[in-house]
Amino acid sequence: MGFHRKLAATLGATALAVSGVAVNLAAAGTAAAAACDHVSASDISNGVVVVVGGAKAYKEPASKCTAVMSMAPGHNLNAWCYTVNSYGNQWVRVNEGWIYNGHVALKSGSVKHC
Questions:
Q1: In what order do the strands lie in the sheet with 90-94?
Q2: C-alpha distances in angstroms, 67 versus 19, 58, 105?
Q3: Alpha carbons 100 and 94: distance in angstroms, whole number
Q4: Are strands 104-108 and 47-51 parallel, antiparallel or unpaired?
Q5: Are strands 104-108 and 67-71 parallel, antiparallel or unpaired?
Q6: Residue 76 dihedral angles phi and psi, to the nearest 5°
Q7: Cα 50–Cα 60–Cα 78 angle in degrees, nearest 5
Q8: pLDDT confidence of 32, banded at 50, 70, 90?
Q9: How far is Cα of residue 22 from the mean position of the Cα atoms in its chain?
Q10: Alpha helices, DSSP H only, in the chain?
Q11: What is the mean pLDDT of residues 15-39?
Q12: Which of 9, 76, 100, 114 is found 20 to 30 A from 87 (Cα to Cα)?
């Protein structure tokens, strides 16, 4: 009787672990698909950011999305607002598109959440 209980417990734990992996994989696939979904943004801030180390502007806030422009270091940009994408990364909306926050520095003003 003890063997059957241990076997049932092991099989139950394995089934839960496998279903957890399936749920995690499904969630990861959804996050990747959602990364390039349209994010509404409007010019609600008075911030100016400067490009540091070069940057690309993207159509939506994720590097998996379409790049629309490359910028050299020192380029000043009007910062509209910022958002956090499905990967947990902060992106700033500028006239040219979305730029990863790690590629810009705040020069003046402030940048509000979109």
A1: 67-71, 55-58, 97-100, 90-94, 76-84, 47-51, 104-108
A2: 36, 4, 20
A3: 11
A4: antiparallel
A5: unpaired
A6: -85, 140
A7: 25
A8: very low
A9: 22
A10: 2-34
A11: 50
A12: 76
Check pLDDT > 90 for residue 58: yes
For 91, phi and psi rounded to 5 degrees?
Answer: -130, 145
- pLDDT tens digits, 83-94: 999 999 999 999
What share of the chain in percent tops pLDDT 70?
A: 70
97 and 59 in contact (C-beta within 8 Å)?
A: yes
Rounded Cα gap, residues 101 and 17, in angstroms: 36
Q: Phi and psi for 86 in degrees, rounded to 5?
A: -65, -10
Q: Which residue has the tokens 């099989």?
A: 11
CA nearest to 93, candidates 104, 52, 75: 104
Question: Letter for the amino acid at 85?
Answer: N
CA distance 55 to 35: 19
Q: Say which amino acid occupies 107.
A: K
